[in-house]
Amino acid sequence: MDNPSTPSRDEFMVAETDLRGGAIGLPGAMMQAITDIAPALGLWFVVQFLGGVAGITSPLVLGIGWVILLLEATSLVQLAKHLPSAGGYFTYLSRTIHPRVGFMAGWLYFIYQPMCPPINPVFLGLILEDTFKQQHWFNFPWWAFFLIAVAFLAFVSYRGIKFSAEWLIGLGVSEIVIVLALGIWGLADPGRGGFSFAPFNPSSAPSVHGIYLGVIGSLLVLVGFESAAPIAEETRNPKRNIPIAILGSVIILGILQMISSWGLTIGWGTKDIHSFVTSVEIPPFVLARRYWGGAWVLALLALVNSCLALSVACTNASTRVAYSMAKSGALPPFFAKVHPKYKTPVNAITVQMIIMVAVGLGVGFWIGPDEEYFTIALAFTLALVLIYTLGNIGVIRFFRTEMRREFNWFLHLFCPVVATGAVLFVGYKSVIPLPPQPIKYAPVVLGVWILIGGAVLIYLRWRGRETWMIGAVKEATEHVEQVGPQVSDIDKEIGPPSS
Asked: What are the structural domain ranges in the chain?
């Protein structure tokens, strides 16, 4: 006889939520994480930096960064499989350490995820502007693409998580295919220096210092897996599917990025790494033209796909965290309003759009799209270091106290401790020595943000408004929902985008 507490193939677990519970399955959750990592955008934006500091060993430093984030993801899923919630780290740390720590984790999250949608379309807009000039097409200013991205993001985000997931799957799959194809083509048709495994040999690096600087850059290529956690309340069987999505995205994208980087290095030529680093046009475009002729625009399409999908995924994550914090009372109830039809946190999305325009255009015109990208990217990298560190402490504490019977020394001690040491080292090396101006002000921006968050906590305590701490520790409860006759498989892949 079936266990009545175990869902059959005709049933699934759904969170009790004001959002659209159970709207997506494993494919949608997986693509939420994969597109937030952004295989094309993540690697192709920093590939020349990796070559500049690590020489031909970009695949090696990506592999080291992959191992670090695999440990971090393994640590994170220990909480995701027990505490499904749209709050992500806000809920995790409120429950495992203290609600005030959870609040600060959520506060730090807002300098990370909400900042990705502004800075990536701005920087890609600059690349497109330069590319259009080089190809003698027509004048296409960076802000034009940015405004197109804002309109697309607003349309997709308001329509709901299922609609977003359909677009993420379509954009993400095409992006992965193009990135992988270009990497394999480079391995099959190498440049000067021929095919070799030298890019994985540490002795091929210009210096040890270059290797760990490359590892710092590699983490920017691979972060984003944690964005699957805030969509738990809208995912079927979240205690199963969210951990799979988090770990699966890191495994798949880590391997993909190493193959792609290896292919770009070999395809360009290991004997020509200097020209690779100094190329005015990004190397993937140069190689795509060499291999594919006029079809090189597929590489351009992959970058556009990657940017749009990343912006959607980041908006999904950031607005769900804001919704969860408002639901508990930690943020104004304004952010908890849900659209009556689409079941999206409509006010949180509206604020995200305002932030996107203000930051993207305001800072972009002020210091330039490229400086904006690197300054804000460093600020949210440092924020992630703190979030990951607090999350790892939460894992250790949770499984040494509340879940002591499940304690496993490798999963609940070794992984979080090693991951913490690695990310703290990366954070230290990111700011010591300080980078050039204006990027060196990134730690100051983060410090001011932390002080504001601390001031908010002090104000709430002074005013006696701390009832939110009760709701902050609650994960979403679940119930078994019968699958309708139109659904035959809970994890059936979502079809192509529909309006």
From this structure: 23-471
**Maximum C-alpha span of the chain:** 70
pLDDT per residue, tens digit, the chain (499 aa), is: 344 444 554 466 766 788 888 889 999 999 999 999 999 988 998 889 899 989 999 999 999 999 999 999 999 999 998 888 888 899 999 999 999 999 999 999 998 888 888 999 999 999 899 888 888 788 899 999 999 999 999 999 999 899 999 989 999 999 999 999 999 999 999 999 999 999 999 999 998 888 878 887 888 788 889 999 999 999 999 999 999 999 999 999 999 999 999 999 999 999 999 999 999 889 999 999 999 999 999 999 999 999 999 999 999 999 999 999 998 888 899 999 999 999 999 999 999 999 999 999 998 899 888 888 888 888 888 899 999 999 999 999 999 998 999 999 999 999 999 999 988 988 888 788 777 778 888 899 999 999 999 999 998 888 888 787 777 776 555 555 544 443 333 234 334 444 3
| CB of 306 closer than 8 Å to CB of 121 | no
Backbone phi, psi, residue 462, to 5°: -60, -40
Helices 208-222 and 58-80: angle between axes, nearest 10 degrees:
50
d(CA 301, CA 179): 11
Q: How far apart are CA 229 and CA 242, in angstroms?
A: 6
Burial of 180 (0-12, 13-18, 19+ CB in 10 A): middle
Is cis: bond before 433, omega within 30 of 0? yes
Measured between alpha carbons, how far is residue 365 from residues 144, 223, 226, 351, 368 in Å?
13, 27, 31, 21, 5
DSSP 8-class letter at 206: S
Give, for 313, the enclosing helix (H) or strand (E).
helix 297-328
In the block, which residue shows the tokens 């697309």? 152
Provide the 10 A C-beta neighbour count for residue 148. Answer: 14
Give the Cα separation of 448 and 443 in Å (integer): 9
Calpha distance 420→426 (Å, rounded): 10
- Residue 317 in contact with residue 29, Cβ under 8 Å? no
Count how many residues are written for the chain: 499
Fold of 23-471: Amino acid/polyamine transporter I (1.20.1740)
Contacts of 155 (CB under 8 A, 6+ apart): none
Alpha-carbon distance 342 to 155, whole Å? 12
3 state DSSP class of 340? coil
HSE value, Cβ hemisphere, 13 Å, CA-based, for 112: 29
With beta carbons less than 8 A apart as the criterion, state whether 257 and 221 touch.
yes
- Contacts of residue 281, defined as CB under 8 A and 6 or more positions apart, other chains included, come to 130, 131, 134
Angle at 228 between CA 376 and CA 240, to 5 degrees: 160
